[in-house]
Amino acid sequence: MKFVDEAVITIQSGDGGPGCTSFRRERFIERGGPDGGDGGDGGHVILKVDPGKRTLYDLHRQKMHRAQNGAQGMGRQKHGKNGNPCYINLPAGTLVRDADTDQTIVDLTREGDEYIIAEGGKGGRGNKRFATSTNRAPRYSQPGLPGVERKLKLELRLLADVGIVGLPNAGKSTLIAAMSAARPKIGAYPFTTLTPTLGMVTPPFGEPFAVADIPGLIKGAHQGTGLGIKFLKHIERTGILIHLIDAGAIDPQEPLADFTVVNQELTLYSRSLADKTRIIVLNKIDLAGTDHRVASFCRAVPDLEVHTISAAAGQGVDKLIQLLASRLQKE
């Protein structure tokens, strides 16, 4: 299934059913009183978090969602049937905005969350309701109230504890595959990862945690260059960021060049991203000639904690998992 993290849909709650104008008609009763029943209420449109949903693919295809109208009231004071609600199932982490005003309506983050996004119209009252001491035979009833139509913008933001960021080909997909059961596409060329990947990691202690592999950033990503801001939103909810750097690509003359590019893009996109707890990890240390490159990087950032791994060889990965579990417990 294609990964879709944005969709624009139109919703319509049900109209209320009209009330009934009716009079009692039975043998031996010449002038029966009014007995028109009320119309049924229109169905609500309800947003619901479905644990089985992972993307907005279905909603990207189906643009219109309607609840059922209420039924008309009937004689003998029979109430019209209420309209059935329309449930829209969404993955956890879906942010719902008004498409016309861009105002945030609700952020659905927990399994089982429900939100009535559009109430159905109330059913009209039957003529029985309008009988008074001075008007014992009202010949009118109410129409039902119309439902509500809204245009919504849905935006999925992954719910992960840890996000992995870095330039293309830094080894993010290899690392998430080494840490979890996730099997992202891996290749030795930029932008192998075209969609975010979510993997569950089970540490030797503490709770399991989710790790998100975000497609590689490049200079100008905050303005939409490369894969741009399309996937940066998926790490806004994370507690910790792993800043992964290809140790083999470090230039001893400018050891912080790649590190600075990613930092600047995160800061320009969102100050809160730049302020998140971050763990610097140098990858691919199993490659020949990386020792002096790693040393030059560490000398350039003497006040920062730097960890070294080889995701492909599994070197240092278990230690990194333990570190993440410990940091998440503290967070």
From TrEMBL:
Localization (cell): Cytoplasm
CDD domains per the UniProt record, alphabetical: Obg
Its biological purpose: An essential GTPase which binds GTP, GDP and possibly (p)ppGpp with moderate affinity, with high nucleotide exchange rates and a fairly low GTP hydrolysis rate. Plays a role in control of the cell cycle, stress response, ribosome biogenesis and in those bacteria that undergo differentiation, in morphogenesis control.
Subcellular location, principal: cytoplasm
The protein's name in its UniProt record: GTPase Obg
UniProt keyword Phosphoprotein present: no
EC number: 3.6.5.-
Amino acids binding Mg(2+): S173, T193
Any one GO MF annotation of this record: magnesium ion binding
Cofactor: Mg(2+)
